[in-house]
Amino acid sequence: MAEDSSRAFVKDVKRIVIKVGTAVVTRNDGRLALGRLGALCEQIKELNSQGFEIILVSSGAVGLGRQRLRYRKLVNSSFADLQKPQVELDGKACAAVGQNSLMALYDSLFSELDISSAQLLVTDSDFRDRDFRKQLNDTVKSLLSLKVIPIFNENDAVSTRKAPYEDSSGIFWDNDSLAALLALELKADLLVLLSDVDGLYSGPPSDPKSKLIHTYIKEKHQGEITFGDKSRMGRGGMTAKVKAAVNAAYAGIPVVITSGCTAENIIRVLQGQRIGTLFHRDAHLWEPTKEVGAREMAVAARDSSRRLQALSSQERKKILLDIADALEANENLITVENEADVAAAQQAGYEKSLISRLALKPGKVSSLAKSIRVLANMEDPIGRVLKKTQLADGLILEKTSSPLGVLLIVFESRPDALVQIASLAIRSGNGLLLKGGKEAKRSNAILHKVITEAIPDTVGGKVIGLVTSRDEIPDLLKLDDVIDLVIPRGSNKLVSQIKSSTKIPVLGHADGICHVYVDKSANMDMAKRIVLDAKIDYPAACNAMETLLVHKDLVQNGALNELIVDLRMQGVNLYGGPRASAFLNIPQAHSFHHEYNSLECTVEIVDDVAAAIDHIHQHGSAHTDCIITEDRETAEVFLHQVDSAAVFHNASTRFCDGARFGLGAEVGISTSRIHARGPVGVEGLLTTRWILKGSGQVVDGDKGVIYTHKDIPVDS
């Protein structure tokens, strides 16, 4: 899965261990970096007020103590003393002096923010005592309940470690490993290691060729990374951080290494932004699948589809039920990824109609799972005998239903389409290649992952391939020998481009210009309900009303005005044809052949049902059209003469939907006149095969048999 998807874990974070490196606490000259520390404390204050439990592990005491003792020694030295070789200061004395100064500074900064802090000094040997560890947990729990910030540091002043900068024996060996140990011991939800660089790089950060690694995958990166120098002030630098991060992550604590020198980085991590380098025990599962060529992907889908077809009906049914369960089990994760897509689309300034189709509204995942279960419990569509004929004595011909083969679906915006199409492909035994829009990248990735992981190895996840590169589409459209049908779901431009770019049959519709015609005999209360539903129930849908046609008699009796008032009260912007714009004093529509996909529609006045039918044929898209009338004869004329995929009488155009038709789900709505038309469910993804069962017959110039061509019951 894409690396972006890995940031969903922050949703459940409450307790956080933050480790501040020496390079963050101090400047290049060894003095305290007061600005950075102040900004850090302000972030901790904000997180504390939001209900997060913050535990701080701070380095810097030894470096700060050394700087102060050097200054004191310099002040107290004579000129002669300065000419002598300078002896390195005792590290434990530096730690004792520096710890006192460091805590005084933290206390001062937090006090200014009306926050209390507490100092906890520990040594490696302390953690060998079970009673100490229990008391440590109790103390920290008590402090956190009081909204006090516990600040930990290794007590280097009394540590029994012989050479703190080199001796890495013991339970922990520096403040990075101490932070990892505390995260595990105190059951933290997240460990943040702050450094003076943006995260883990593939090489030294100063090397222009080095790249920031957003998600660390041990199997991939362990042998590829070249570490630079160790920390200029601390013990181990990035090497120590990575070792600590790997240990914590594989024990179940997510870890982020990021810069402590950049404002609000901790807050940005908790907002799910791609900040720094993430370590997570499931990171290897997020590694993108090795890129394969278009033909290889299509061939793999065909091979897997044949294994799918070889399963029993019950086995295919179980796959669908498992997919439905998996979607519901991962609803929170799916929602997080979808919300990230929606936020990015809003920030990028996409049209509201696209954003509306992109969003998985509350309850949508459950609704999709329910539709899949309905589909699973339908009669198995594969291998059904549609017709049975006795050609001659002992020679039986069967016409049976059969999968098409491999489908290529290119769709924009709607991630729910991926779920519907994938479930239909499984039910119909077809292989599937999916190409979604970049605006739904994260939603599509997590949905594809959840679905394919529910497919057993006997079939293989490659039965549903997710095309991630736009460059692969032209190549796929050339593969008429391995792809059997292309179904584009999106704009007129998308559908037209695909139709002109491939020899593969294309099934779909370019526009959804749906009409509602209100006849002179209409029940106006019914008409108002239907017109409003057809327009405002889901304006971005392809089955929403785009043009309202009204019989001229309704102008005179005021019924048209009532409809217009109701539409305007719902926030619908109206445009008129030549007659309506003049009568209603509304702007004239620039074209009758226009799909708004929003709270807008065209209104026109027509003379009668014949004029309405002519208007629909001239300006419509043969999608879904409706008449509202109490006159049965007029209704029958409309129903039989309007040449659209779906034609309704006294019902909203919004009913044109696979799930509402009882198809379980739909792969799309087709306005084609060949193969499938209207909402395309399982039946639209099937073709036929001929099965001939004989007993040794030969043609022999048609002298070898006596033809009967007798229809016989399919269940015989």
Automatic annotation (TrEMBL):
GO terms for biological process: amino acid biosynthetic process. It catalyses: L-glutamate 5-semialdehyde + phosphate + NADP(+) = L-glutamyl 5-phosphate + NADPH + H(+); L-glutamate + ATP = L-glutamyl 5-phosphate + ADP. GO terms for cellular component: cytoplasm. Keywords: Amino-acid biosynthesis, ATP-binding, Kinase, Multifunctional enzyme, NADP, Nucleotide-binding, Oxidoreductase, Proline biosynthesis, Transferase. Its EC number is 2.7.2.11, 1.2.1.41. Pfam families: AA_kinase, Aldedh. Pathway: Amino-acid biosynthesis; L-proline biosynthesis; L-glutamate 5-semialdehyde from L-glutamate: step 2/2; Amino-acid biosynthesis; L-proline biosynthesis; L-glutamate 5-semialdehyde from L-glutamate: step 1/2. P5CS plays a key role in proline biosynthesis, leading to osmoregulation in plants. This is Delta-1-pyrroline-5-carboxylate synthase. It comes from Hibiscus trionum (Flower of an hour).
